[in-house]
Write a structure and sequence with these properties.
Helices cover about 45% and strands about 15% of the residues. With about 325 residues, it is an alpha+beta fold. The chain has 2 domains: about 170 residues, no CATH class; about 140 residues, no CATH class. The two termini are about 30 Å apart.
């Protein structure tokens, strides 16, 4: 999730380890450790556009790296907090804060390599958006109250809220999947696989995608008491052998294509306007569109060692935001 959410949850976890009178130093240590794993964004390359996708939420987010990350954070934090918190308790606060990071990120759709190096699976539980003020603001408020009033009870309430909210997200995701399955059946489609992901900042408007007979369909589902479907469209699912027979399997572009497909969990659609552009179908500016946020473009004339072109499109079309608000709150 975003750094504020990670820092707030890390701080709450750090607070729960604090002794009496040590709540503020534990808050700082937990907050710093809760954000530290995202330093992996510094792993990038000016020539390899897929590298940052590959290594964000990689080894620094894995379960096995938690003690190492916590120890590194504690070493730095102790330089600042040694007058207020001995190293043992600094390490404990950092351990609690660092452990929260990868687990919270795994709740989003992006994918987190929790099981590295034993598995390269990108774990994605899809029960919260990467930015959600309804999750973050209560946690942050309770963390501030805990530090200001020196009461760990507020930290416990912050963790209870986080767990409850993520639990609600899981229930909402299942409801979105059920509604999406009924939608596919109404189209006489037997979906091969499907995913539901919350749209930005809420748990009631979801993007639902499924694959059927070589196409990936995207629809928006508002999951309230009576779910509402906002039908979308579809793209042809990418098939390397069929669609890119011209691509040298030993080329850098072929390797980049495999890396991007792994990042997108195989949900790659071929853009309607460009047969050599592949879209990560998990994300779109509007939850029922197929324009995509992340995409790569292949170049038939490129050399064997050339990388693909990566593009990010978060949407800036006129009226896009108002259409999103209509889906979230407007009439069906």
């Amino acid at each position: 999730m975003d750094p504020i959410s990670q820092g707030a949850l890390g701080a709450a976890c750090g607070q729960t380890t604090a002794r009496s009178g040590m709540l503020i130093p534990a808050t700082i240590a937990g907050c710093v450790a809760g954000m530290a794993a995202d330093l992996d964004i510094l792993i990038n390359s000016s020539t390899d556009p897929i590298l940052f996708l590959e290594f964000h939420r990689h080894f620094t987010h894995s379960l096995i790296f938690i003690p190492i990350g916590a120890l590194l954070c504690a070493g730095i934090a102790h330089l600042l907090l040694r007058r207020h918190l001995d190293f043992k308790f600094t390490l404990l606060a950092c351990l609690a804060g660092y452990a929260s990071h990868g687990l919270l990120d795994a709740c989003t759709a992006y994918g987190t390599m929790l099981l590295w190096p034993f598995s390269d699976a990108r774990v994605a539980w899809n029960n919260v958006s990467v930015v959600d003020p309804l999750f973050t603001i209560p946690v942050l408020t309770l963390v501030v109250l805990a530090a200001k009033r020196s009461r760990k009870t507020y930290a416990g309430l912050a963790l209870l809220w986080a767990i409850a909210y993520l639990g609600i997200g899981y229930v909402q995701m299942q409801r979105a999947l059920d509604t999406g399955a009924h939608l596919a059946t109404s189209r006489d489609h037997n979906a091969q696989r499907a995913r539901a992901m919350p749209s930005i900042g809420n748990l009631w408007l979801w993007r639902h995608i499924y694959e059927y007979e070589g196409r990936i369909y995207a629809d928006a589902i508002r999951v309230t008491l009576a779910p509402t479907v906002f039908e979308g469209s579809s793209l042809r699912a990418a098939n390397t052998a069929r669609d890119f027979g011209w691509l040298d399997p030993d080329s850098t572009q072929a390797a980049d294509l495999q890396r991007f497909a792994h990042f997108a969990d195989g949900y790659l659609g071929i853009a309607q306007s460009d047969p050599d552009r592949l879209i990560d179908m998990r994300y779109s500016a509007l939850p029922n569109e197929v324009t995509g946020v992340f995409s790569i473009s292949l170049n038939r004339a490129a050399s064997e060692n050339s990388h693909v072109r990566f593009a990010t499109d978060r949407g800036a079309e006129p009226g896009q935001f108002s259409r999103l608000i209509d889906m979230m709150f407007g009439a069906p």
